[in-house]
Design goal:
Blueprint lengths: L10 H11 L14 E10 L2 E10 L5 E10 L9 H15 L6 E5 L11 H9 L3 E5 L17 E6 L2 E10 L8 E5 L5 H11 L7 H10 L16
Parallel strand pairs: 1-4, 4-5
Antiparallel strand pairs: 1-2, 2-3, 5-8, 6-7, 7-8
Helix pairs in contact: 2-3
The structure holds 2 DNA strands.
DNA sequence: GCGACAG
DNA sequence: ATCTTGTCGC
């Protein structure tokens, strides 16, 4: 892939990089067919980051492939610069994947970010694949509380430009805390919400992300999820 | 200066 | 993210 920038800049430079990358984002869904989706999760251990990417069949959500990679941590956790801490591990796991998914879910924000460049957006640019950010809490944006049922949602608005919708606060289960959904690259808000609901099966977080979290923690894919199954 | 602050 | 068991409520 095309190196877009250095991964160990000073925070001030990282911010400049994000401001520059923003113009490359394509916040539009092109209508492509989706047969496989992937989930990314990064676990942190002392001075190393372990990333897992799990691929699932869509729309039945059966996991069939996974890749794990571990990398040395070189960047601190700074709100707004999460991608610089976890990005290298994601790239390492991505290169180990035998095949790439049609769509990727991230644990974190897409464009619902101070500079419109959350980890789902930034990695979408690196990987050149449609991405969606599903965060467990808010980083940026203003909103009201959505209804209590699965599917209920409110708009996530840009703090500095309240007329601009940057995502959705979405209830993925009845009476459970909503998640913050925002498009990354090659995605729009409506489809990000649609795919997120389609990927949530009984739990607050999307299945791809849940599997990635388990695998990053050492779990194996179930036997009934053959790693070499033909998909088409 | 005082909060807010993905994972 | 991580420290940490059982427990209350939807």
């Amino acid at each position: 892939m095309e190196p877009l920038h250095d991964w160990n800049p000073k925070p001030e430079e990282a911010i400049r990089i994000q401001d520059e990358l923003r113009r490359q984002l394509r916040l539009r869904w092109d209508g492509r067919e989706v047969h496989t989706i992937g989930g990314v999760d990064v676990g942190l251990n002392d001075d190393r980051a372990r990333c897992a990417i799990v691929l699932l069949r869509y729309p039945d959500l059966v996991p069939f492939e996974a890749a794990v990679a571990e990398v040395e941590l070189t960047f601190p956790y700074i709100p707004g610069l999460l991608s610089f801490r976890e990005g290298p591990a994601v790239l390492a796991a991505w290169e180990k994947l035998p095949r790439k998914p049609d769509l990727l879910f991230f644990d974190g924000q897409g464009i619902a970010h101070p500079r419109g460049m959350g980890i789902a957006a930034q990695m979408g640019l690196w990987l050149q694949v449609p991405t969606i950010g599903v965060a467990k809490s808010r980083l940026y944006g203003i909103h009201t509380t959505p209804g209590p049922r699965r599917g209920d949602r409110t708009k996530l608005l840009d703090e500095r430009e309240p007329g601009r919708v940057i995502g959705a606060v979405l209830r993925t289960r009845d009476h459970v805390r909503p998640v913050y959904v925002s498009p990354g690259h090659l995605m729009d808000v409506a489809h990000a919400v649609k795919f997120t609901l389609a990927a949530c099966a009984g739990y607050r977080l999307p299945e791809p992300t849940r599997w990635a979290h388990k695998v990053a923690g050492g779990a194996e894919l179930p036997p009934e999820s053959p790693r070499q199954e033909r998909l088409l």
